[in-house]
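Assess this today:

___
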Amino acid sequence: MAEKLLRYYSYVSETHGFSGKFELAKQTKVPSTKASLEPDSPELITLFKKAVEKITGKPAPDF
């Protein structure tokens, strides 16, 4: 469960630190602690990819 969502958190954390991680939680309304319990649904993956792109300024990787 939520393997991809957690990978997006790791990616943003590595590239933009805590502030990026905080921004990802804010934009998706899914905190990292809750992301591990959420399913990797197509809707959530799309939401996370859009947020990652806004935060990093680059297309989100496909995990």
In short: Residues 3-28 form the longest helix (26 residues). Residues 49 and 61 are 8 Å apart (CA to CA). The helical segments are 3-28, 32-35, 42-56. The chain is about 70% helix and 0% strand.
